[in-house]
Specification:
heterodimer; A: mainly alpha; B: 278 residues; six-stranded mixed β-sheet; 32% helix; ABC_transporter-like_CS (chain B); P-loop_NTPase (chain B); ABC transporter ATP-binding protein (chain B); nucleotide-binding (chain B); ATP binding (chain B)
């Protein structure tokens, strides 16, 4: 394992760790003496105050940082404007396809490692390559290879963005079962397949779900970025960002940034929710 | 070193097959190799016990007691030598589903309930449990009412009881226990030993327990095999001739203390104070 990979593995493990942190959150809240949601609200209020201050002082003349009020008004208009919803749908759809393909490829790599453990080094190398290739360099190549009007580049970048985390998370998960748990299966006459079915697959779920959770916003980011290179496509958040930049429409840019962040955050939250449903034991919740 | 033979165990199983109807270990050695280094974990173990007797392996950590247990359970292969329990080899024993194991780590599956954790060995063996079997076991280990609890909701002692019930669910004629209560606090451990003694007395099985608690070994066993440090070998067999069923009071009797002193002497005295953990 490379240091880089270990680091990322660590951060995924951390995700799995914090996923069981109901008690931990309560503890942190207890230290500050306030409930956790109050902390979140205070954070948002401070953020908006600083934003407003910066907009009203430093960028008062150029207007490249609009005030929260301007953005909020624009956002309210955008949320009832079908153009924005079509853009979210187009970009989100490409992200979803990329997410599915990328994860399928990652699971396939992890599966090969499962069958042939010597493939471990090669699989992680491939995953590292996927995360190291500058996607802005590979995007034009994909665009040249695909038909005008297709969203191939968006889907490709989204897929590329998720492979690494899912490979590392899956490999981490397949090592999650304790040797004693596997010994118990062997002692009662179970083979490798029984160990897999009864223990290792289920033991792998928490870290796989943690990786999938991190991968969801990454896929969306890849999809938005991919639209910068698309030819013959006129819908998508990335394309609207390009247009807003060209016309120096800062309010629109900030609105689009907020929408993108919102969609990515929503994806993260939903996958996290699914993760808690499929592996409730990792949260320490009593069910 | 003289070979000791008692009424129910022997260090010469080939010469006294009548005393090796339970555990039968002949010429057993095990070397582990990592890179160019090879470490000899076990040096020529000869050991036999009668069927349905309770044997404890007692010795300093690293003396290979767990390795013997793992070889008997078919989890490791011996470098040389043969092992058999109740007349069948370890591989056959594994396939016959007559073996129950429990480790220091309860190793329960956190996503399964107590009931389903206990059922696991039967699922692996492809056996449908007789109606009431698992309920009876839960009752036997005193966990009635916790059938549908997850391991995370149980205390360490309760988890270890589940692990004992899981060991018993195959109705084993052989039990292999690797420091089953080693991770528990002293009070819980003593209570668990009393329970294990009761359970074992109700349904005897050829049992091998690995431990480094002297009192625990005397309390539970018919015979204690005291081992020397690496490469592990058996220093002496001590037959424990205390009446059953045994109660905690017996631990305050002079006979019990005599056994304790004798085993301590073998462990710490005769071998220049071989290091022990506790």
């Amino acid at each position: 394992m490379t240091d880089f990979e270990r680091e990322l593995g660590g951060s995924i493990a951390l995700g799995a760790e914090t996923a069981r942190g109901g008690a931990r959150r309560r503890m942190l809240g207890a230290i500050a003496g306030i409930p956790p949601w109050a902390g979140a609200i205070i954070g948002i209020v401070i953020l908006i105050a600083v934003w407003w201050l910066v907009a009203a002082t430093l960028f008062h003349v150029t207007g490249s940082v609009p005030t929260p009020w301007q953005v909020a008004r624009h956002l309210a208009g955008a949320l009832v404007d079908p153009v924005y919803w079509e853009a979210i749908g187009a970009t989100g759809g490409a992200a979803l396809w990329g997410y599915v393909w990328g994860n399928l490829i990652a699971f396939f790599l992890a599966f090969i490692v499962l069958v042939a453990p010597w493939f471990d080094g090669l699989a992680t190398q491939l995953a590292v390559v996927c995360s190291c290739i500058p996607i802005t360099a590979i995007a034009p190549i994909v665009t040249l290879l695909s038909h005008p009007g297709s969203r191939a580049t968006s889907i490709f970048l989204a897929a590329l963005s998720v492979i690494f985390t899912t490979v590392v998370g899956s490999l981490l998960g397949l090592r999650a079962a304790s040797p004693t748990q596997l010994d118990v299966i062997s002692a009662y006459g179970g083979g490798r397949l029984t160990q897999l079915v009864k223990v290792r697959f289920t033991a792998a779920l928490p870290s796989i779900m943690a990786a999938l959770k991190i991968a969801a916003p990454a896929a969306f980011l890849g999809s938005v970025l991919g639209e910068y290179f698309l030819i013959g496509v006129d819908k998508g958040l990335g394309i609207m960002l390009l247009a807003a930049q060209a016309s120096a429409n800062s309010v629109s840019l900030w609105t689009l940034a907020l929408i993108s962040g919102g969609v990515a955050g929503l994806a993260y939250w939903i996958i996290g929710l699914v993760g808690r449903l499929v592996s409730p034991w990792s949260t320490g919740e009593q069910r | 070193m003289s070979l000791s033979t008692t009424m129910i165990a022997t260090q010469d199983p080939a010469g006294a097959p009548g005393l090796a109807t339970g555990i039968n270990i002949q010429g057993l050695t095990k070397t582990f190799s990592s890179g160019r280094k090879t470490v000899s974990a076990l040096g020529n173990i000869e050991l036999g016990t009668k069927k349905d007797s309770f044997l404890s392996l007692l010795g300093p950590s690293g003396c290979g007691k767990s390795t013997i247990l793992r070889i008997l359970a078919g989890l490791e292969t011996p470098t040389s030598g043969t092992t058999a329990i109740n007349g069948t080899s370890s591989a056959e024993v594994q396939r016959s589903h007559e073996i129950g194991v429990a480790f220091q780590d309860a190793a329960l599956l956190p996503w399964r309930t107590v009931y389903k954790n206990i059922r696991l060995p039967l699922e692996v063996a492809g056996i449908t449990p007789e109606p009431g079997l698992i309920e009876d076991l839960i009752d036997l280990v005193g966990l009635t009412g916790f059938e549908h609890a997850k391991p995370a909701q149980l205390s360490g002692g309760m988890r270890q009881r589940v692990s004992i019930a899981r060991c018993l669910v195959v109705q084993p004629s052989i039990m292999l226990l690797d420091e089953p209560f080693g991770a528990l606090d002293d009070m819980t451990r003593q209570r668990m030993n009393v329970e294990l003694q009761r359970i074992w007395s109700e349904k005897p099985a050829t049992t091998l327990m690995v431990t480094h608690g002297i009192a625990e070994a005397i309390f539970l066993s018919d015979v204690v095999a005291v081992m020397t440090p690496r490469p592990g070998s058996i220093a002496e067999l001590v037959e424990i001739d205390l009446p059953r069923p045994r109660t905690p009071e017996i631990m305050r009797s002079p006979e019990f203390h005599a056994y304790h002193d004798r085993i301590s002497e073998i462990l710490f005295g005769a071998h220049g104070g071989a290091g022990t953990d506790d």
